[in-house]
Amino acid sequence: MLGSIRALEFYSGIGGLHFALARSSVASNATVVRAFDWDQIACAVYTAPGIAHRVDISTLNAESLEPLNANLWLLSPACQPYTVLNPNAKGASDPRAQSFLHLIEGVLPVLVERGTAPTRLLVETSQGLRSESTFPLKLLPDNSSRK
Fold first, then answer.
1. Tell me, what's the pLDDT at 23?
2. Cα 8 to chain center, whole Å?
3. What is the Cα–Cα distance from 15 to 48, expressed in whole angstroms?
4. Active-site pick, 30, 65, 79, 108
5. Cβ of 36: how many Cβ atoms within 10 Å?
6. φ and ψ at residue 102, rounded to 5 degrees
7. At CB < 8 A and 24+ separation, what contacts does 25-32 make?
8. By percentage, how much of the chain surpasses pLDDT 70?
């Protein structure tokens, strides 16, 4: 059993992953304590008023996230850098991928070192992201045999 779930939602948009969590089998035990997105309109119409904060995600750090005591991160990073439908996709070298890399390679290791990292990450992804060099830490299992 997971115990009490305190979630942070990154790239929240209007709260799609919050909405999904609220309708999941763990909903009665889960709270989204903060949501982050750059888009002002998305934050204004977010699923749960007062939770979304307009911020450049690449400016977040361990010091700002640690006090929120989150054990679940919900992430919906930009898919354009990784989509298999774009033959010119640049993957991790695309500027739109930088804030995600910042969280995974910069912030998360600090939280792990301090023993305050989330125990679970839920990443909405595209097929290209799973095979991209963005995941040198193998945060995603290789499910390439599944369709």
1. 94
2. 8
3. 8
4. 79
5. 24
6. -60, -45
7. 26/2, 29/2, 29/3, 29/4, 29/5, 30/4, 30/5, 30/72, 31/4, 31/5, 31/6, 31/7, 32/7, 32/8, 32/74
8. 81
pLDDT in tens, 25-63: 999 999 999 999 999 999 999 978 889 999 999 999 999
Non-local CB neighbours of 3 within 8 Å, separated by 6+ positions: 29, 71
Residues 4 and 42: their CA atoms lie apart, in Å, by 27
Residue 43 annotated to the active site: no
Strand partners, 53: 36
31-40, 93-102, 112-121, 128-137: segment of lowest average pLDDT = 128-137
Is residue 57 within 8 A of residue 38, CB to CB? The reply is yes
Strand, coil or helix: what is 124?
coil
Alpha-carbon gap, residue 77 to 11, rounded angstroms? 6
Residues 17 and 36 sit within 8 Å (Cβ to Cβ)? no
pLDDT score at 117? 94
